[in-house]
Fold this sequence. Notes:
By secondary structure, the protein is mostly beta strands. 9% of the residues lie in helices and 37% in strands.
Amino acid sequence: MINAIYGKKIGMTQLFNDKDEVVAVTVIQAEPNTICQVKTTDTDGYEAVQLGFGAIKDKNVTNPMRGHFDKLGVEPCRHLREVRVENASEYKPGDQQTVAEFAEIAKVDVTGTSKGKGFAGVIRRHGFGGGPGGHGSHFHRAPGSIGQCATPSRVLKGVRLPGHMGCDRVTVKNLDVVRVDEDLNIIVVKGAVPGGKNGIVRVRVAGNGNW
């Protein structure tokens, strides 16, 4: 099987489990992903399939993308993503990946883009403790010393400083699959996943390494 599917985060809610305990869950809607292109070691140097998902109006399809889809003989999609597979020759353009493949899966890894939070200081961005809060102190929320003097006369790489926070690619691993609804194309996982509502996420079978 292709061990991943792409969808969008609908939001969070709560369900009761078998022990009548309230569980916070995230609902992910994953419409059937269409295999648009098959990449093999002979043609591309690696084994992968290109998945297309998301409806798009015909007027919004650019000419380069239209040529790509026409050449492969599949309907245009809004988004294209690649997934590594062990043997790409098992698949062909037009095949679909659905949530039914995850009906028997216990745990998944979910990857998404975290919410953007703009420019942030070191206390919010890195959890610094800050200085004394009294009026006599001139050190409150500043980062403090960041380098040495004559040697090495520069700021070393990796120093935690203020800067842009969020909009990072984040993966949450080993989330329990609570429910799979094949009729609604929904995967319900326990806990939170990165990103805001309607954000694109990848759901992958847990424990597959780089695959």
